[in-house]
Design goal:
- The protein is α/β, with parallel strands linked by helices.
- The chain is 44% helix and 14% strand.
- Helix 3 runs antiparallel to helix 10, helix 4 packs parallel to helix 10 and helix 11 runs parallel beside helix 13.
- It comes from Sporolactobacillus kofuensis.
Length: 398
């Protein structure tokens, strides 16, 4: 490869940087005795009946290519799952694509719908993957900072941003329950936002991957109110502790799904047949597998929330997922990366810097409580000791 080609490649990808989350997690992993509250991965095992289905698939030599959009049986099970759980109606034959996790779903959707110069509205703080995928399509992310409104996008801010950017807006992204804040939207909030969006000819991307980990009221998808505009992303990773199986899916009206299928097909051909057979079991016979995990996460949420508030961190109480977004106390290091490095080095607890999640995230840290209660108790003890030492040092200076 010539130097000119390498230089051209670097220039074109210069806006794309490695994931801050994975980079910091790897950095912290080298500290002996570290407790990692970093990665958003369930600490539960895949349900036994789902694993058995995967084993049967192997034994039956289901090792050949699946149809690009997924096996008919799995797409039918997903259709039934969405109808029963959330009142969403998608035709299994023409409106559902099985993807390699929600990650590939996000890539497929954004690279399919975006053209150079398009704009994508993104409420922040938010899971950062949407940003590089938007940039890869030579489109522009437009951030809407929700930190002053309890991390909830208001209809007023949405309307204002749409008016400011006009016809250049191609899509808006919603991810709730939200990574990193744990905040979700309730029916009245969703209806108010939908009333704004239905006046605009734009795509509404609904990343519902944490839908089964919603505390209290049932998850409501934006797609319920905007079925003709919505593109739904979901999967088995969080609901069934199947992160490594890499099963996600996209749902959209047939005219949209047909076009999404082109990029999906040429990106991965199809997901692993064995994994699809396991997911079939998950969605068909394990529809409520997430309930037990959700109950345990809620206990952990309550413990970590109270512990962090007692230590002095400001927190919005999470309503879903398994994250707590905590405001660093004013008397501590305010740069979230510097604070997280200091905490990891001195207290041997790893969290993710809030600045990794876009505007409104700086000055915060994200704690993943997808860890055992034993680990969480020890982590909170270490953070409390860390905070006490800072106060003691500041008191001696005064």
């Amino acid at each position: 490869m010539t130097h000119a080609l390498v230089s051209k490649m670097k220039k074109e990808l210069s806006l794309i940087q490695p994931s801050d989350i994975l980079k910091f997690d790897q950095e912290a992993s080298g500290i002996p005795g570290i407790i990692k509250l970093t990665i958003g991965e369930p600490d539960f095992n895949t349900p036994e009946h789902v694993k058995e289905a995967g084993k049967r698939s192997i034994d039956h030599n289901r090792s050949h290519y699946a149809p690009p959009n997924g096996t008919p049986e799995l797409r039918q099970a997903i259709s039934h799952f969405l109808e029963k759980k959330y009142g969403l109606f998608y035709n299994a034959d023409h409106e559902i694509l099985v993807t390699a996790g929600a990650t590939e779903a996000i890539y497929t959707v954004l690279t399919s719908i975006l053209n150079p110069g398009d704009k994508v509205l993104i409420p922040t703080p938010i899971f950062p993957l949407y940003i590089p995928d938007t940039l890869l399509a030579k489109a522009e992310p437009v951030f809407m900072d929700t930190s002053k409104n309890g991390f909830v996008l208001s209809p007023e801010l949405l309307e204002q941003t749409l008016a400011e950017h006009g016809d250049a807006v191609k899509a808006v992204i919603f991810n709730f329950p939200c990574n990193p804040t744990g905040v979700t939207y309730r029916r009245d909030q969703i209806e108010a936002l939908a009333n704004v969006l239905k006046k605009h000819d734009i795509f509404v991307i609904c990343d519902d991957i944490y839908s089964e980990l919603t505390y209290g009221d049932r998850h409501v998808s934006m797609a319920e109110y905007l079925p003709d505009q919505a593109i739904v992303i979901n999967g088995a990773s969080k609901s069934h502790a199947m992160t490594g199986w890499r099963i996600g899916f996209i749902c959209a009206p047939a005219v949209i799904a047909t076009e999404l299928g082109k990029i999906h097909q040429f990106t991965i051909t199809s997901t692993a047949t064995v994994a699809q057979d396991a997911a079939l079991e998950a969605f068909e016979n394990g529809m409520d597998d997430g309930i037990r995990m959700r109950a345990e996460y809620e206990k952990r949420r309550d413990f970590v929330y109270e512990a962090m508030r007692k230590i002095g961190f400001g927190c919005v109480k999470p309503e879903g997922a398994f994250y707590l977004f905590a405001k660093i106390p004013d008397h501590m290091i305010q740069n979230s990366m510097a604070f997280s490095r200091d905490l990891a080095r001195k207290a041997r607890v790893a969290v993710i810097p809030g600045g990794s999640f876009g505007p409104g995230g700086e000055g915060y840290i994200r704690i993943s409580y997808a860890a055992s209660m034993e680990q969480l108790h020890e982590a909170m003890h270490r953070i409390a000791e860390y905070a006490a030492k800072i106060e003691e040092a500041q008191g001696s200076v005064q």
